[in-house]
Amino acid sequence: MSHIRVRPETGLLYFDFQYLKVRCREQSNLRDTPENRKLMERVMAGIAAEIKKGTFWYRSAFPSSRNLKKIEALEAQQFQPASQMVSIPMANQPARQTVENISSAGHPTFAEFAEKFITENESLWKRSNIRTKRDILEKWLIPQFGKRVISSITKQDLLEFRSVLAKAPGKKPGTTMSASRINHVMTSVKQVLDEAADRFNFTTPYQNIKRMRIKKTDVTPFTIEEVEMIIKYCREDFRDYFTVKFFTGMRPGEIHGLKWKYIDFEKRLITIRETIVDDYEETPKTADSNRDIQMAPQVYEALKTQWEVTGKKSPYVFANGNGGALTNRNMSNRVWYPMLRSLGLKLRTPYQTRHTFATLMLAAGESPEWIAFQMGHSSTEMLFKVYSRYVPNLTRRDGSAFERMLAANLGPSAVPAVNEAVTQPLINAPSKISSKLSEKSSTKHPLAVANETPASVEAQRGGVPKAPAPVATPVIDPDQASKPAIQNPWLQMFESYQSNNTQGE
């Protein structure tokens, strides 16, 4: 009789059968799963058939067995010919032998299937995605699972691998791999295992394994004063670049991949159809990222000026010395961070220019749906979840917005007095925007008309955007140094309003 049994202390399966009146127990490397049991049962059935025919040769199936000499001595007495029977991977066999044996039994190794999986999907994935997948495969997955039979990988193996990743060095010295990076690596493992399980009819071990919790990244937009400072004091050859970047909300890759053929000066539109990812031209991030952005007056003038620089020299709006596209790495390390340090501003990623655009648009009273479209979002959910807390007239909870609605419809008699010095700019901005947008010939961007002052008029004539004159000056706290360096100007006014009311009590 032959059986497939499991050792309780290791959880590994082993063969238990009789051969030449000797009880033979041979260990495998396979854990006790239904799929692995079926695999070993098929091998055991082949062994039993060879024994019955008298053609079984013990060395062919178990070349590293501790009982090999004893069994071969008995075989010599019986003189049975060697069989070409394929062996099963044993715990004390070399890794290469193990891989070859198990692969020929029907299931490929992880390395074999992963390569096939990527090759089959190359026509569906972006070039940057293919590059990332292969990098993860070569650096992490092949060394860990490459020689393993793909159906033999267990959930415990995956959890142990994740623990290894958590201790791996991060990008910065003295750090470990980020949770986001770990999730990317584990997602690649999951994709390969899920596809293999579907094709070879075994249960994927990647079940109920939760993603690592990622620390929420703080959104730290610039104030309008800081935007003005950057545009005024940055390198002159990048002034147009930062004007466009701050007042369009384009992603870094989108502005670097922006070409002149996507600029329509007549309609004052910027068409987003390409982006730069890892120095390669790609389609935008999502389908909704394909969009048309309306030019603010400052953006229109900046692009007109930039045309004189690169319009006849490069297909790219903002190009390097060779006429090629700018890269995120060079712009960040050579321009962005040195500029922030020189201006004494808090260091933050270039992506914060996009966040700045969103907060300024919301503060100006623009429709969230329109803002989402301009930014390439599929819905307004991101706006309300991420940005609304930076805009007091959208997030204030003092009841003033409701009171103003009642006053407009029922009369002012029942409405308490409100500090108009603070609320008036916030109330008037949307109405001014609406009136301007209703004009048939108007092409002005809301940012340009929300608070029209002599300073803003000057900006429309070619100068840099000017901040609205503050109505009230915020009270400086002695512990100001401990507070975030970035404060929205509208939030400052609201805080000032609260402080003034408190002092008056």
Protein traits:
50% helix, 505 residues, 3-stranded antiparallel β-sheet, 4 domains, disordered C terminus, hpI Integrase, Chain A, mainly alpha
Structure overview:
This protein has helices at 34-53, 58-61, 68-78, 95-104, 110-121, 127-145, 155-166, 179-200, 224-233, 239-246, 252-256, 297-310, 328-343, 352-363, 368-375, 381-387, 392-395, 400-410, 420-438, 446-449, 454-460, 489-504, and strands spanning 3-6, 12-19, 22-31, 263-264, 269-272, 275-277, 280-282, 291-294. It is elongated. The protein folds into 4 domains: 3-93, no CATH class; 110-200, Tyrosine recombinase, N-terminal domain (DNA polymerase, domain 1, Orthogonal Bundle), CATH 1.10.150.130; 224-388, Orthogonal Bundle (hpI Integrase, Chain A); 390-504, no CATH class. By secondary structure, it is mainly alpha-helical. The strands form 3 sheets. It has a 3-stranded antiparallel sheet, with helices on one face. 50% of the residues lie in helices and 8% in strands. Helix 5 crosses helix 8 (179-200), helix 9 runs antiparallel to helix 10 (239-246) and helix 10 (239-246) packs antiparallel against helix 12. The model is unreliable at 80-105, 394-398, 413-498 and 500-505 (pLDDT under 50).
